[in-house]
Design goal:
The chain has helices at about 5-25, 30-40, 45-65, 70-80, 85-115, 120-125, 135-150, 155-175. By secondary structure, the protein is mainly alpha-helical. It has one domain (about 5-175). α1 (about 5-25) runs parallel beside α5, α5 packs across α7 (about 135-150) and α5 (about 85-115) packs antiparallel against α8 (about 155-175). It is globular.
Length: about 180
C-alpha cells in the first residue's frame, strides 16, 4: 500500500472510531463519563503508568521478535504490509490508532459493557485478526485486557493511549528502519 494511502486510511478509520465513541456516549447520555475517564484519577500517575507499560511491552515485543520465530515471522508480514514509513508517518499512524482505538474500546465499549468490561479486550483482539495473524490477535487481546484493567482501576484513557501510542511508535519505527 502506498505510504500516503496508508496514513490517509489510518487517519480516516481512526477518526471514524473517535466519532463513533463520542456519538455512543452522547446517544447513551453519558457524556459526563467520557470526561471522568479521560485522564483518570491522577494525570501524572496516568502518564507515568502509560509510559512504563508502553516501554515495557515494547521491550517484551522486541525480545519476542528477536528470539521467537513466530513473532519474527509476524513482524515480517506486518512489515510487508506497511512498507517503509518516515518519522512523520510513523507518528501519525501511532497517534491516530492509539487515540481512535482507545476511545472506542476502552472508552465507549468498556463503559457500555459495565460489569463485563473485560469483554472489550476480546473485541479489540478480534479487530486485529486476519489470515495468518492469529498471534497478533492473541497479543492484541492480552494487551486489550491489560489496557482494560488500567482504565477499570482509574488510570483513564490517558494512560492506555500513551502506552498504545508508544508500543505502536516503537514497533513501526523498528519495522521501518
Amino acid at each position: 500500500m502506498p505510504r500516503n494511502a496508508l496514513v490517509l486510511a489510518a487517519s480516516v478509520l481512526y477518526g471514524i472510531f473517535v466519532c463513533i465513541a463520542v456519538l455512543w456516549f452522547w446517544i447513551r447520555e453519558r457524556q459526563h463519563r467520557l470526561s471522568e475517564i479521560a485522564v483518570g484519577d491522577d494525570a501524572m500517575w496516568s502518564l507515568l503508568l502509560g509510559a512504563a507499560v508502553g516501554l515495557g511491552v515494547s521491550g517484551v515485543i522486541w525480545l519476542g521478535v528477536r528470539y521467537l520465530k513466530q513473532f519474527s515471522k509476524l513482524e515480517g508480514r506486518l512489515q510487508e504490509f506497511i512498507g517503509e514509513l518516515n518519522e512523520t508517518e510513523i507518528i501519525a499512524i501511532a497517534m491516530t490508532s492509539a487515540i481512535g482505538e482507545e476511545m472506542l474500546f476502552r472508552g465507549a465499549l468498556q463503559d457500555h459493557l459495565g460489569g463485563y468490561w473485560y469483554l472489550s479486550a476480546l473485541v479489540f483482539g478480534l479487530l486485529h485478526t486476519g489470515p495468518g495473524l492469529l498471534l497478533w490477535a492473541g497479543v492484541a487481546t492480552v494487551l486489550g485486557l491489560l489496557f482494560s484493567v488500567m482504565v477499570h482501576f482509574g488510570f483513564g484513557l490517558l494512560s492506555v493511549t500513551v502506552a498504545h501510542a508508544l508500543i505502536n511508535f516503537i514497533s513501526l519505527r523498528r519495522m521501518s528502519l
